[in-house]
Amino acid sequence: MDASVIEVQSLYYQNAHAGCVALAQKRAPNGVMDDTSLLILVYAARAALAMGDIAGARQLLGDDAEQPVAMSVLLLADFYEMKRAGDEAGCGDVVEQLTTLLDVVEPGELSSEIVRYQVGLALHEHGDTQKALETLGVTGAGGSTELECIALGVHILLAIHRIDLAEKEYLLAQQQNDDSILVQYMEAWIGLVRGGRATQQAYYVYDEMSQNSMIAQTPNMAPSLVGKAVAQAAQDHLSNASGTLHEALALDPTNTLALANQVVAKSLDSETAVPEADAAANLYATTEPTSALALLWDSKRRELAEAIAALA
Question: Which residues does UniProt call coiled coil (predicted)?
Answer without folding.
Answer: none
